[in-house]
Amino acid sequence: MANGYSIFVGLIIIAAMCGAAWFFAPKGENQVLWRSSLILTFISCYLMWAITFLAQLHPLIEPRRSGLRKEFVHH
């Protein structure tokens, strides 16, 4: 269900949203503030999602069962 391509699909979606934020930011003296805020928000949310997704896709620590009887433990 989950695979490595999800990271790239998410990156393409975030890039499109950043482009939309750049071009459709309200005109005026606060245009730079709007652009910066929206783009930083999109990138921060993407990074948080990507780190969490990759940590679950390839965990660093393998889970182990501890309550097994001796005859079921394989060394």
Could you describe the 3D structure shown?
- With 75 residues, this protein is mainly α.
- The chain contains two helices and no strands.
- Helices cover 63% and strands 0% of the residues.
- It has one domain (5-57).
- Keywords: Hydrogen ion transport, Ion transport, Membrane, Transmembrane, Transmembrane helix, Transport.
Which helices and strands appear, and what pairs or packs with what?
Layout lengths: L4 H20 L6 H27 L18
Helix pairs in contact: 1-2
Got a strand count?
A: 0
| Distance between the ends | 31 Å
DSSP strand (E) fraction? under 5%
Number of domains: 1
Provide the residue-averaged pLDDT: 87
Shape call = rod-shaped
- The helix tally amounts to 2
- Structural class of the helices, strands and pairings? mainly alpha
The helix fraction, in percent, is 55-70%
Spatial extent as radius of gyration: 21 Å
- Unreliable residue stretches: none
Q: Main beta sheet, described? A: none
What is the chain-wise order of helices and strands? HH
